[in-house]
Design brief:
Length: 477
């Protein structure tokens, strides 16, 4: 095991610009997590891969051991998206919902990446100060000032970590984990942002890929190299999903309580958002409303009820910024600002934010001119980002020489546009596109058809026929 780890470390260092001497990954020390079912282990990785023998970051891992060790294929690494989601927590949900053969034949391992939750979390503003930013009027000047305040707090609390949480270093962490479990090649499932991690991994280490499922995939070129265009696509997808929901609501009033209040549903949503102020306001409510679209049509009836309640300023959409939002958005902003370089200049910022606000008037103005939060809201913060981008990946995304890579996309994804999955499948030298004609973010746990293809690929390396489109009804849930 130690010899394999040392060899893997030598190979890893040949895959990119980091040229310091090899340092073998430490052994994993799996112990019962205290529940009698899952196993946990810490794992140390270099803070800075240019100096792999220096300061360490401790990642926290969780494992579902294969139920049939004699039939074990290897380890399936599941990587949570976000950035900012906990892979440690996701293990239980993934393991309990996967088909039995996946549970039998893979150790299922998830972890909190560097900067997330249990693994030296990024910290920026505290919750009261962050919540106060959400109460400011949505203007360019406030967006710029809020980003300055946010960035200063990130630098003060996590300045030593910020240069080293970009996706290249996360991919290197993943490769050390692959070596530590003794797998010659990586088996991986990643959704949303985690598809970018998988793309970077495959591009850096193409010969070490066994099977990668990239669910609700990013267009890596736009994400890293043309961030304004990438953000535009996300704004467009969010607005379009909300409008599709509202059209469905108007057409099926028996299933959507919100339809009873009058025909101009979009106008009524706008009026509700305008009517709110204080800790629960149009921006906080919109953030919760749009996030619920990720669940897809199976939750549309509930969303119609919630909007009906919201019209009377009651119900679960009366949402204030929480500590979990504060923690999640700290990582989300920090990782994406480490990865993405926006063209300099406040004039272009003004122009691009004005464009999305005009083109997507129901959702974009409060998001574009709000505080640093989720994904497409990052431009004011990233434009003024105070940390070096030492862990930013800058190479090709072709992954020439990789195993076949399965790229999936939903045609009605409100978060990661379907066009991104199409683009990634064409960018990768060995990408294979799988499509679900459905609503919601990520296809796993929504489409049984998509899951069947994904699991068959993970188990037997069989990719679906070119042009495969799943059209099944969503999994209830």
């Amino acid at each position: 095991m130690k010899i394999l780890g040392a060899v893997a470390a030598l190979l890893m260092l040949s895959a990119g610009p980091v040229v310091a001497g090899p340092v073998a990954p430490p052994a994993l020390d799996w112990q019962d997590c205290g529940d009698g079912v899952y196993q946990c282990s810490p794992f140390q990785v270099p803070l800075d891969y240019r100096h792999p023998g220096g300061t360490r970051v401790t990642l926290q891992l969780r494992r579902w051991p294969a139920a049939k060790p004699a039939d074990r294929i290897g380890t399936l690494f599941i990587y949570a998206g976000g950035p900012g989601s906990s892979g440690w927590e996701w293990v239980q949900g993934f393991a309990t919902s996967a088909v039995q053969e996946i549970r039998d034949r893979f150790d299922i391992v998830g972890f909190d990446p560097r900067g997330v939750h249990r693994s030296q979390p990024v910290s920026c503003l505290d919750q009261p100060d962050y919540a106060a930013l959400w109460q400011k009027p949505a203007t360019l000047a406030n967006a710029v000032r809020s980003a300055q305040q946010w960035n200063a707090a990130c630098l003060a609390h996590s300045g030593g970590l910020l240069p080293f949480i970009g996706t290249e270093y996360q991919a290197r962490d993943l490769d050390r984990l692959r070596a530590a479990v003794g797998d010659a090649k990586l088996t991986y499932f990643g959704g949303s942002y985690a598809t970018y991690v998988g793309t970077v991994y495959a591009s850096m280490f193409p010969g070490r890929t066994r099977a990668l499922v990239l669910d609700s995939a990013y267009d890596p070129v736009k994400y890293a190299q043309d961030p304004y265009s990438y953000d535009y696509g996300q704004y467009q997808a969010t607005e379009a999903a909300l409008q599709r929901f509202l059209r469905w609501c108007a057409a099926t009033p028996a299933s959507c309580a919100f339809a009873a209040g009058g025909p101009d549903l979009a106008g009524r949503v706008r009026a509700i958002l305008d009517s709110l102020s204080g800790s629960v306001n149009g921006a906080t409510v919109l953030s919760e409303l749009t996030s619920r679209l990720n669940s897809g049509t199976r939750r549309w009836t509930a969303l119609g009820t919630d909007l009906h309640l919201l019209e009377n300023h009651t119900g679960p959409l009366m949402y204030a910024i929480s500590q979990s939002d504060t923690a999640f958005n700290a990582v989300n902003v920090a990782v994406e600002c480490a990865d993405r370089v926006f063209p300099p200049g406040m004039r272009q910022l003004d122009s691009r934010l004005s464009e999305v606000a005009a083109d997507f008037p129901l959702t974009a103005p409060r998001m574009a001119y709000g505080p640093p939060a989720y994904d497409q809201t990052h431009a004011p913060a990233c434009l003024q980002w105070p940390a070096e981008r030492l862990s930013r990946y800058t190479g090709s995304y072709r992954a020439v020489g990789s195993a076949p890579i399965l790229v999936s996309g939903n045609t009605g994804d409100p978060d990661t546009p379907y066009a991104d999955a199409v683009a990634l499948s064409r960018i990768l030298a060995n990408g294979h596109l799988l499509t679900w004609q459905g609503e919601g973010h990520t296809a796993r746990r929504k489409s049984a058809c998509m899951e069947a293809y994904m699991y068959e690929y993970l188990l037997r390396l069989t990719v679906p026929p070119a042009g495969t489109v799943c059209r099944d009804a969503p999994i209830p849930g």
